[in-house]
Fold this protein.
Amino acid sequence: MEKRSVRFKNRALDVAADLRLPDGFDPARKYPAIICAHPISSCKEQTSGTVYGERLTELGYVTLAFDASHQGASGGEPRHLEDPATRVEDFRCAVDFLVTLDYVDEERIGVLGICGGGGYAAAATMTDHRIKALGTVVAANYGRILREGDMSPGAAVAALEAVGRQRTAEARGAEPVLTGYIPGSPEDREKAGLTDIDIVNAVDYYRTPRAQHPGSPNKLLFSGLEAAFGFDAFHLAETLLTQPLQIVVGEVPGAFGSYRDGFELFDRARSEKKDILVVKGASHYDLYDRPEYVDQAMDRLGAFFAENL
């Protein structure tokens, strides 16, 4: 396959993306295209592009794996901002880019989102019906994760009060605070006594040679979190999400909640054609790059997109 580094606009921001073209690419033909969205804290060089993007391109799709605005190689200040409205708009702008390509069939554009990217993909698909099919792998509702926090009563309100204090401090000239999504190393995780399978595997994926990448630096702008606390990735799915839907979750649940989020999205979606695959023995991060689990996800996703694009 051929990979091209491209950029497209989200309003004034430049969004960096990898455009992959299938073997034997003929610019005179029309191809179906799939937008591949990375997890929270991730980048296009990890699971969305180098695993699922490549596998879908091998099946004959043009794929577009992009870095979220304010993150990775994309533009946007402040850096390391996780803003749901901007993340969702990235998808719409990705569609805008694809429909300018003569070799993309605008009636056969789909989306595949992984983890938080799956939640954002659902939100984008509801309001951009140029997207004709939606696939998710361990989709997670980022707003729900933040609101639950450490599961203690009042966790969300306490966190929002802390964010408010930091915004006030920055308005008065203080330096922004960058926090981490996860512990910085396996040793840090062990010292903190964190043993949940999702956290253990997240550190192993992002903070070791397994998938570590400069575009995914484990940095989050703390004062930018307020909007995400009020975000529900599945809001209005029962009204607006009508496109065909394929959900993939792992059988082994963890703290990030993608197992139950997958079933919530399935139950809420208005889609007449919808399916959920539970991959036996797989946890959340197994479905990022472990071949024995990714193969099962791709078998179902390949059939789904072939039928609906």
